[in-house]
Amino acid sequence: MTTTENLNKSNAAEIISAGTSEGGQELQLRADMSHKAVLRESGAVLRMSESQVASLADTQSEDQTMIINMGPQHPSTHGVLRLMLELKGETVLRCKPVIGYLHTGMEKTGESLTFMQGGTNVTRMDYASPLNNELVFSMATEKLLGIDQDIPERAVWIRMMLSELNRISSHLLFMATNGMDIGAVSMMLYGFREREEVLRFFQKVTGLRMNHNFIRPGGVAADLPAGWRDEVLGLLDALPQRLAEYEILMTGQPIWRERLQGVGVITRDEAIALSATGPILRSTGLAWDLRRDMPYLRYSEVEFDVIVGSYGDAFDRYSIRLNEIRESMRIVRQILDRMPQGDYRIQDKKVTPPPRGRIDESMEALIHHFKIFTEGFKVPEGEAYVAIESPRGEIGCYIASDGSATPYRMHVRAPSFVNIQTMPLMMHGGLIADAVAVISSVDPVLGEVDR
Amino acid sequence: MSQTNSHTADDVRFVSKTDYLKTLTTLRSEGFEMCADLTAVDYLTHPGRTISPEVATQISLERFELVVNLLSLSQRRRVRLRVQLLESDPSIDSAFDLYPGTEAMEREVYDMFGIAFTGHPDLTRILMPEDWVGFPLRKDYSQGSIPVQFKGAAS
User: How far apart are CA A224 and CA A226, in angstroms?
Assistant: First the structure.
């Protein structure tokens, strides 16, 4: 018997048990489902009156329907989102997102990384807005350490500036992908071009374009480099003109409006019931922005408007993001005026390693440095939930600590994960071509959905 | 039973499994319109956890704890519910009828901890494959690793 045969035999059982069938997670045939379950997948997630159920029941008795898969390898599903669509002709009757293709157990990994290392893990979740992930993780850790009020002013303002610039870069990426999904292919080039300008600034500051691990418990990793102010000013001066170009290219175009207006409509009650946050919730006319309504950092000290829509459709969500770029620029300008001098990280020896220069002179500093980077610092027992406004909505971090240097449990409330629940509702009754517009307008980042 | 966590200043309430839905209904009528987050913690290796002494005398701590974060948009307020679930019977009523947004979150908790939600419309695994064995975020589920092979070393 050859070795391969041996392997095959011993692995056979394993392969069967570790196969990757999605089975019950997939969209089921109508014949196999209860009436109520069909209604739910049609998007009727809210409690309905008897008469509403009866009126929907007419649409249930179809036999000329077809179930197709969209994704996980479809170019307009933003990564590996798989949608199972039930179609009647070109009309979407039901939709079910099947997720998990990018699941790498990041919450489990988080349990074996120290609070110092945790940033490298969470920053990879929502890879389009890494700094917001790091910020919420750091804030949760600081809350447990009880040092959330002691972060130096300069660190707080640096965090705020990076967070807003990240919002700009994330929304620019949305402009690019949204344009591409709808068919404005040149927009993809413009969006990526402008985003690259912001990433180039991030690279100057943090050393990396993405996955920075720059915002850390206690402050930020390093001070801003020389000449940062001119860089930011250069960005702020260049962007308005580019945004005006977007308006000409997209907002005012009849084709663009036809494709987005009235597509993927969601009402305020539905959005709240489905726990949707961010631009989806704001597009329904509800001005809910954690930066204003539950201020963190120093957002209560800067002036900005919360952009809301009125129809809850894909066009509103597009316009909200476009104008949020402008509001973020407004905030960054105020930050430039007010950026204080001082420490960029807390001078608490428990959390912050000693400065590089001291390591050469002092044995204690060297030991201290070594201990912090090998063992990490201990965080008192407790549990805390912190939520901030990421470009996609409320990103929250729940940490339970058992008093050791690693979190006992680290959970991230990912806005995309919750927001994709609105897709079946928004797609119901629309055309399959509009399904692409709906996915795009939800702006999910699959790294964060699957974690 | 409520406890304001002086350490973190969060509004935390301990709810028994039987009162869970009743409490959610009350809180919803009090203006907590949104269920922001629903997750669980497996306290297998850290049974003590942080609880104020007066609360500790009134409830028995169990292995699993369901953690629900509710949000009131009108009052700009959050409340966190902690529900103890027995190791021998990790199940609880589903909050789907009150907060439809918990659908995916409850599926995730089921997938990762094996906590069953009775009344959930579609309780299947969400992130792991359908036929996966075990519940990855439980503390007795090992993280797993690929053995490292060194060149020339005896295996």
Answer: 7
